[in-house]
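Predict the assembly for these two chains.
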Amino acid sequence: MNDEELRRLLTQGAEIPPGDQRLAEIRDRLTSRLTPVHALPSNPVLIAFALAGFALICLLGTMYGGQKGWHALNLAQGIVYFGVFLLLAVLFAIAMVDQLIPGARRRIRPGWLIGGGALLLVALAPVLFERFDVNRFVARGIHCLEFGTVCAAVGGVLSFFLIRRGFLISPLQAAALTGCFAGLAGVTALGLVCPQLNAPHILVWHFGTIAIGTAAGALIGLVMEWRASQKEN
Amino acid sequence: MSRYQQADSEATATLIARLSPQIFQFFLAQVRDRSLAEDLLQDFWLRVHKARHTYRASEPLLPWVFAIARRTKVDQYRRTRNIKGHEFQVEELPETAARAPERKRTLALTELLRTLPAAQRETIWLLKVSGLSLEEVARATGSSVGAVKQRAHRAYEKLRKVFGERA
């Protein structure tokens, strides 16, 4: 059997219409609750909102904790370190906004972005920060993790207001991306505040914020998926 | 669709009448139960209603519609799986099941598609029966054009093999 014959067979399709009574029922239900709605803003506007939230977290973080981290870095370190954060924030914002619209073109694969971003950051820390000191590792680091997690939580709440306007086809992916984006905002705020340029400290206590944010997001996404599968309309 | 967003009831009725047969067939091909497919169709329209603000007039309609239909089907599948997981047998079944009537070896479309894994069946249905383009199927299923091509190719290979065995 060649492709053409197979194609002809498939396009013959069984044309069975739905019941008229059910269609009338659907029509009545929908038309009885009709109200005008505004379509979501364009993607660039939504991405700009997400990035504004990101900037707000960084601003609030530095207002609370100061800018010692920024001053501790030399110019090259500052450009590379915060440049990578900014690049990842833009990519995560794009991927997050793609999740809001059913059937939207997926420009970035969420799994690849989360995995690639994690690898990039893990590779970046030892290259940028040559100090390797594990003296009083936990005592010095736990406050950073707390601060970063609080910033990420605020970022997560802000991002939630953005994603709740969409219709999530994959709540797990959308929530994990949002959690990762919020964690990234927390790490950036932490980078501006914390003056410790120590690779293990950055890897564990700073980047741990992203891991916590992503895990929390994924957990919320799983709960959303579970609830959606329980709900009867 | 834009008029539906503006709460035009006539446009809403037209949209339901035009899209429902295609969506119903999509569900029927997946669940093979007319009553369940009608329930899914109703569930689908309620979701469309909730999500209508996410449609943009500049974007193609079918990927948006089928992405929601697909999600409806996934949730139904999980719901059914949960219910089946909690069911238990209350009566002893007869040791030998009643003999099923001889089935005709027809090559009806649905029977042919039944031989495919769910993802391939869905791709072939969207491409060949619903008439979506590769790009539109990729959007509706949240995957890349390359992945859709690969799934369609594998489905074709399998269908050709099944057809060869039956013919």
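Chain B touches chain A through 70 residues (CB under 8 Å). Chain B has eight helices and no strands.
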